[in-house]
Structures are given as C-alpha cells and as structure tokens.
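Example 304.
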Amino acid sequence: MTLLLESKVGMKKLSDVYRPGHLAVSIELFPPKSATGEQSLYEHVGKLIKYSPDFITCTYGAGGSTRDKTLEIVREVKSRFGIPVASHLTVVGSTVEQIRDYLRQTQAADIDFIVALRGDPPQGQSSFVATVGGLQHANELVELISREFPGFGIAVAGYPEKHSEATSFDSDLLHLKNKVDAGADVVLTQLFFDNRDFFRFRDRCAAIGITAPIVPGILPVTNLKQIQRIATLCGSKIPQSFVSDLSRSDAPDWQMKVGIEFALDQVNELVLQGVLGLHFYVLNQSQSMLAVLEGLQIRSPRPA
Ligand code: FAD
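Predicted structure in complex with flavin-adenine dinucleotide:
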C-alpha cells in the first residue's frame, strides 16, 4: 500500500491523523543527555522526515527531570521540520499547579498534542505515591487537560500485556476506558513482540466500548542485550524464537538485520489487520525504522 505524501501544515487534531484509508506514523524520541546526542537526534529526525511521519513525540523523564529538555526538543523539531509534535507529560513529582504551568508553556510553544501519563515511581521507590497537591492517575491528568486546555489532542498509554501494577486485565482495561472517556483521542500501546497480545487487547477494548484508535507501539530491535533490558522494564515478553535468532551472532549488522525482518513481519500483519497507525520507539536512531518503512512501502519518500 503506497499512500501519497500529504501536507501536515495546519493539521492539529488527532482525529484527523487517525482516519480510515490513512496509515498514521508517529515516532517517539527521548531527551538526549549530551549536546552530541542532541545533534545526532536532529540528524536522525532529518532522515526520518523523508517518510512524512504524522507527528513526533518526546518522552518526559522521571519526576519531571527532563521537563525543560522535553519541551525544547518538541519545539525544535516542529520549528526545524514543520510537522506536528506531542510532549509527553507525567504527574510524577508535580503539583497540579506545576502541571498547569507546563501545559501553559506547551500551549504557548504551539505544541499540538500531549501524551498524558501517570509515570513510573521515581528510582528507589517501589510503588507510586502521589505528590501532595498532585494527581494520582493518568485519567485525572486527561480530565484536567480536557477541561482547562481543550485545544490539545490527547494520547494515553495502553498495555497489550497488562500494566505491571494492575490487579487484573479487566481492571486495567476499565482504567483505560476511564482515560478515553475523560477525553483521550488515541491509545498508544506499550511495545510488544507478539501480535496476538495486541489483537486480544484490541478486541477486549472494543468489547468494553473503547472506540478510540488503538495504535500499536513498535520497537525495531537493533541489539539483543539492549532490548532485553528495555523489555524487562516495560513488562513486554520477547518470543524465544526471536531471542534465538538474534543470539546467533553478536555482530551489530546481524542483530540489526534480524530486528528489521522481525519488525517488518510484525508491522505487515498489523497493517493487514487494519490498524490506523503505528507508533515507533526509535531510541533516537533512524536506520531500522527507515528500513521498515522502505520494506512496507507505506509512504512514498519525499523527493531528495
Ligand atoms: P495509569 O493509567 O494511571 O495506570 C497506572 C496503573 O494504575 C495501572 O495499573 C492502572 O490499571 C491503574 N489505574 C489507572 N487508573 C486508576 C484509577 N483511577 N484507580 C485505580 N487504579 C488505576 N513514562 C514516563 O515516565 N515518561 C514518559 O514519557 C512515558 N511515555 C510513555 C509512552 C507510552 C506510549 C507508554 C505506553 C508508556 C509511557 N511511559 C512513560 C510509561 C508509563 O508512565 C508507565 O507505564 C506508568 O507506570 C503508568 O502510566 P499510565 O499513564 O499508564 O498510568
């Protein structure tokens, strides 16, 4: 399926992004720790832009530790590349007034969307404790944004393999429904490697009346050790056959090749099964995502 290049200028609603007949592509970045990392990030975004992503997001570090950097990066991506951007925002370590303040700054910077999250407990804490004067769960953040900052499109997190703290799959789904009912436009999922988990999750969301698009989170693997660390943190399981394939050689080229082939197969099946979008965790790189988009032919590259 080859979709025509589209102009993104002036498009600010998530409901415009996720629409039948269009496969939306979003890319998630994280704030680099060094100036070199930041320069490299913009170089990679420059390459990814070739395939006209619909929007680019940047994560928000634990306890708001990257607050300024997150905003700086999304602002810079929008100004350099002229495409819609989303700032992630968590409630960890912030009072409601600090959250409002960040949203005001984000609004003033013309950021299009917010990925509204609770966030993980800060390092050293085993469970999440709300800040005094702060919020407890992501649904409260979605309510606040919808009520006080209605111009923002809102994305929330969903978990095909269940959130690690949830007491049951059913309760996790009900909490997800609360977020959507509070005003979220789209659900971006945690990364996963077994499409059956995603399809089951999507079916169960539909069964309880979640009508917002459920967009799979895809991480094209480039390194086994790295992904094993990330998957443990995210609570995502890696199929044993995939681990075995990756383990056949430590050579970076091999690992990248196997990762790209796996991601291509995964995404091909998701597209055939009618997903409205793909959310790519690119770890601030571009090579593997470009290979996946080239392999899928879901976009015509922009002329050089
Ligand atoms: P919630 O929706 O609040 O859910 C957290 C837990 O509480 C779940 O177990 C849920 O079932 C339960 N729950 C929810 N609502 C209620 C309620 N009202 N009453 C009782 N229980 C409830 N983390 C970051 O720190 N920064 C980021 O930028 C970031 N970006 C992410 C992007 C995506 C697409 C995804 C999938 C995750 C991201 N995360 C990020 C990780 C996320 O913050 C963690 O997974 C966190 O533990 C949960 O966040 P949440 O928004 O899903 O929380």
